[in-house]
User: Fold these one by one.
Assistant:
Number 1:
Amino acid sequence: MKILSVMNNHIEEAEKKDYGYGCTCDNCGTTFIFESSEAAYPRHINPKPNECYVSCPNCKHIITLAKCTKFKTLYELNDFKRIYDE
């Protein structure tokens, strides 16, 4: 058997690459980006974004992922960096 072309159409784009999240703290106004592995998730199947949280690296205020922006593409991540980078 010889594979001529590998097609992974059964794998969704979200599963292929995780570009992370971007968030602005309500308490201190700090804007930061983070990977999804840095967020805290509850220990049950399919948690909702309002149940998951991340803490602000500046003031340690807890922010739910529902208030953060999930990047779907590398372009969204770069635009977020360009807008908020000092």
Number 2:
Amino acid sequence: MKKVALLMAVLLALVMVLSGCGGNSGSSKQTEDKTAESTTSEGSENKTTESVKITLSAPEESYPKDLLDQLAEIYMDKNPGVTIETESFAGVPQIEYYKAKLATNDLPDVFFMNTLDSAFVDAGAYMELPQDIVDAAPSTKYNAYKGKYYQVMNNQQIAGMFYNKQMFSERGLSEPKTQDELTAICDKFVADGITPIVIGFKDAWVGDFFLHGFMLTTDVVFKNPDWEIQRLKGEVKYNSPEVIKVYEKFIDWRDKGYFGKGFMGLTYQQCEEMFATGKAAMFPMGNWFIGDLANLESNVDVGWFPFPTEDGSPGYLKALGNSFSVNAKTEHPEEVLAFYKWLTTDPEAVRITCERMSLIPDIKAAVEMNMDPLLQEIINKVQGMDGYIWTYAQWGDNAPPPGAYDYCVKISQDIAAGADIVSSLQKLDEEYDKLQATRE
């Protein structure tokens, strides 16, 4: 009996041990599930159990490296399991830079382009954005391409003429309302040996922005707001009397010395420095220049006025603020999308970006920012005016064909350097139509 009792006791103990093992197994499974939930939880403070590296890239003129680094540091502090590597580049067209990256399968996880390039869509390079991100930035609805969204629009931009108030005051000059008044001001500065309007073509987009973004938009698009969409459909041409007139005006201003000497060799940074050091009276640029101005340690008292129309009718140049895209082939789609959502729609990230770049926030959530006085002045001055989207700033289905902008910049550069206007615009039309045909 004692042996039987002992055997029963041993068997009972064994059953208890096995039951305990089974219980521990269930507990371990629950722990794994909770860990998985923690790893994949949504939100800006996504706690990962494994280290994830995200690459973030932007051109220097759009997002300065120090701003990228600042945003990356903030996000990494909130998300210890995430490492963000930033890169910045300059002197290379954005599309060319990223096309080279795409060709070598080295496209960054999150990258900035100032246009939604349909060629990247067709190549499967862009990740389609989920609806919650789209809804967080209302203007993104204008950036649909074939019914899908690949890039958030989270700010607004205004372009116009920054000017040196002291230089104007010393000569008894006031802000011009017409282009004739503007050229009269330029003549005074030329006579005094001062560059009236600083632009450059070393970074060719700067000179093209004035020629196309300012002059062509004001003289053509103000009168026909659908001009760019009509060009997309082949209903209007660059090689036309109204566009030729704009280029002829630009060359006339060049020959009169309005852009100073050596403007073909100036970079964007050199243009900024010339204005900030009082070597140029006016600088045609977008409101993002205000953010750069703060870092130039300039003593210039800066004012602003809308680029004037020929007849003095009010209007101003605007664009929806572009943003980043996500690499569809990223190795960490969930973590990258979480970072992207924070970067483009979180009030903290948008505030930091808009304050640094002097942009106007445009997201659903309230953004409390310290508005730069000059930016506030710009906003006040355009109140009640009609705003017109400057050329090559259309988005989504209305965007120009991929490569058209870069070719347009090249043509502007050629004409500014002395190429024939009519034959150059004919080439632009031919290339534009060829690119559009490829797109279709």
